[in-house]
Write a structure and sequence with these properties.
- The chain is mainly α.
- Helix content is 58%, strand content 6%.
- The chain contains 15 helices and five strands.
- A hairpin with a 2-residue loop joins β1 and β2.
- α7 packs antiparallel against α8.
- The protein starts with a strand and ends with a helix.
């Protein structure tokens, strides 16, 4: 059996505990067995390639990104217990009142953190994947009331623990705070090490995610930053040109197994089991995303045909229709602003789509009305 780290005595809250310090990547004694992941890696890479190909089915990849990035933001937050829904997110963006304002804020903070990382990686003058970039993302993730006491943007300076009511009965005690910076520096070196046929990119990503979760470098938000790192590396290593896959959906669906596999790396050195689970997740999530894109493309094409076949449709209605996948909930005032037109023109454009059954009015009122592209939302939330 392989060992993946060692224990050191640490004290916190007046208790002495055995904290786990992982060995640097990649796994050794023995090295990761290629036969344990070769076929799963091939299937996962193929699923990602198909997903990339199918994105050409829609006129604008922004439509797909709008929903995919929000689903990932939502699902990664739900793994941590956030109660917000995708509809809450659309409502908040439309300016509607939402119930779970703190939960929605957590999801929108994830979106901001993700964009920050993506913008840096796409900018030749931006930061590379690094501890500093992850700390900057963490500062955005925990921006606001709930994260204020959790040292946003800073590596932890105290011992933390996972599970249990106190350190002494914790499920897992990550490394002591004075080990964190060195462990992250080792992880960063591994990320930027020369590619090797023995460790394909997806396998490296699996190793990095598990290592990050084991180090648990922040007081809060480790799971979300760790999963953000997965999406960033998938794009950085050109496995997908755009973040069209929401892996957190698979991880949420198999949450107990997700945590069990990560735990087995620490307790039993079972890197093969974790990597296999991760690769199966990528293949499944990419296939789900591919199906979702085909469903969206089919719906939008059918609705566009209805619009084109309808008599006396003005240009504002066409322009509004093309915006719907980017604002599935809206008011007439928002349409007026987006189309940069008059209120009567915006009202007429919305009425055309409502009469065709493409959008639905939500309030039943004569004024302050709200509208929804309901079949599209149903596809995304189903």
């Amino acid at each position: 059996m392989r060992s993946s780290g060692s224990y050191v005595t640490s004290s916190t809250s007046g208790e002495a505990v055995q904290a786990f310090v992982p060995y640097p990547l990649p796994p050794r004694d023995p090295v990761l067995a290629p036969e344990s992941f070769a076929e799963l890696n091939r299937v996962a890479e193929l699923a990602l390639a198909r997903l990339s190909g199918v994105s050409g089915l829609v006129p604008s990849v922004d439509w797909l990104l709008y929903s995919a990035i929000r689903k990932e933001a939502l699902l990664t937050s739900q793994i941590e217990g956030t109660q917000a829904t995708l509809t809450d997110l659309f409502d908040e963006e439309a300016g509607f009142a939402v119930r779970n304002t703190d939960d929605v804020e957590e999801v929108t903070n994830y979106l901001r953190a993700f964009r920050l990382v993506q913008d840096n990686l796409r900018d030749p003058a931006g930061l590379p994947i690094s501890i500093r970039l992850l700390c900057d993302a963490h500062a955005l993730l925990l921006d606001g009331a709930r994260g204020a006491g959790k040292q946003p943007g800073a590596l932890r300076r105290s011992q933390n623990w996972i599970g249990g009511t106190r350190p002494g009965n914790a499920v897992f005690v990550p490394p002591p705070a004075d080990h964190v910076a060195g462990l992250l520096a080792d992880m960063e070196r591994f990320i930027h090490s020369e590619p090797s046929p023995a460790l394909p990119p997806l396998v490296k990503i699996a190793l990095v995610h598990a290592q990050f979760e084991t180090i648990h470098p922040f007081l809060d938000g480790n799971g979300r930053i760790g999963r953000l790192l997965i999406a960033a590396l998938i794009e950085h290593w050109a496995l997908l040109s755009e973040p069209l896959m929401y892996l957190s959906g698979y991880l949420k669906q198999h949450q107990a197994e997700y945590y069990r596999r990560l735990s087995s790396v620490r307790t039993d050195g079972d890197w093969e089991g974790w990597v296999s689970f991760f690769l199966e997740g990528v293949a499944s999530a990419a296939t789900d995303a591919e199906r979702g894109i085909i469903a969206i493309a089919t719906l939008v094409a059918a609705d566009r045909r209805r619009l084109l076949e309808a008599p006396k449709v003005g240009p504002a209605s066409y322009r509004l229709f093309e915006l719907l996948p980017l604002m599935p909930r809206f008011t007439i005032e928002r349409v007026r602003q987006k189309l940069d037109t008059t209120f009567p023109t915006a009202t007429a454009a919305v009425k055309t789509l409502e009469d065709l059954g493409i959008v639905t009015e939500l309030t039943g009122q004569k004024t302050n009305r709200s509208f929804s592209y309901q079949p599209y939302i149903a596809l995304l939330t189903g």
